[in-house]
Design goal:
The chain has seven helices and no strands. The longest helix is centred in the first third of the chain and has 31 residues.
Length: about 180
């Protein structure tokens, strides 16, 4: 692989790591702020036996914070658990959508913007996981020119993800039901 291709892959990996790292830090902090509600969100998925719900709800927010911090710090090792978590979350959502349980909250860390499960959220996680694959190989060195490009790309990815979340929430939330009844 040429030096240019290696730099491009590092920039892509860095952008994905920064954008996804911000997402994980934000969702982890939101889940900690609302930790009394989070076990109920985990239970709503109906995927874990009762004795595992509370431990999963206790472990998940700090795990998201650690993975997000690792991605933001430029540690390549953090990409693998981030990919695993994104795929796991996508699978949990897809299973519940297939069961006809799309009405439950995704638990994506935004209690102020309830997000019922939908295919957009599943695909969002799959795309984020795929974007992180180059981060397994390389991330630019901190404060280098490629890192600055990756930073810009990561911030754009984060903003785009927030936009997708908001649009998905509006498309499936209570306002969509009101608009549908007005016809």
């Amino acid at each position: 692989m040429s030096a240019l291709a290696q730099t491009a892959m590092a920039i892509a990996g860095g952008a994905a790591a920064i954008g996804t790292g911000l997402i994980f830090v934000g969702t982890g902090m939101a889940k900690l702020r609302h930790r009394a509600l989070f076990p109920g969100v985990v239970a709503n998925y109906r995927l874990l036996p009762e004795p595992l719900i509370r431990p999963a709800a206790l472990v998940l927010p700090p795990l998201e914070l650690a993975v997000g911090a690792g991605l933001l710090a430029g540690w390549r090792w953090a990409a693998a658990p981030a990919i695993a978590l994104l795929v796991l979350f996508a699978l949990a959502m897809a299973i519940n959508i297939a069961r006809g349980r799309g009405h439950i909250d995704c638990g994506c860390g935004r209690p102020d913007l309830r997000q019922p499960l939908n295919r957009v959220l599943v695909w969002r996680n799959v795309v984020l996981a795929a974007l992180l694959v180059p981060a397994l190989a390389a991330i630019p060195d901190f404060a280098s020119a490629p890192w600055l490009v990756a930073l810009a790309g990561g911030l754009a990815l984060y903003a785009l993800t927030l936009l997708v979340n908001a649009l998905a929430s509006l498309a499936t939330g209570p306002l969509a039901a009101v608009k549908g009844n007005a016809r």
